[in-house]
Amino acid sequence: MSGPGLKHVDSHAAIHEAALNEARELNRLVAKLARAKRFDKAIEVAYIIVEHWETRTLQHAAAEEEGLYKDLLDENPNLKDEITALIRDHNMMRFLVKKIRQILETEGFTEEILELFYTLVHVDHFHNLQEEKLLPDH
């Protein structure tokens, strides 16, 4: 069973938008540090961004999978393909975050990390739009 906020499009969208806005702002900061060649600070911020995705978006994703998606499928089994696609989005984000962490630990800050951070924002934005269409009060 999911919490009441996850089933209402307005509150759910607000959760999504807050996390995405934070990620975008962190991306701007790490890009600015990279342009200034302040790679010591960029790596610190990159780890903060990884933590942001792990504790905000990916924990939210786990809660959706454990509650919201099961509830939506119970209410409408025809949503199976849409739910499967949403879970795949979550798995893609998990993969990207894990890849970023591995690069940080083995190579330090690289241009690829910045590209992956931007990719995460785009994947999550598309995912959120698709997900919000499935919520009952949409």
TrEMBL record:
Q: Which residues form a coiled coil?
A: 62-89
Which keywords does this chain's UniProt record carry? Coiled coil
User: Does the keyword field hold Coiled coil?
Assistant: yes
Q: What is this protein called?
A: Hemerythrin domain-containing protein
Source organism per entry reads: Pallidibacillus thermolactis
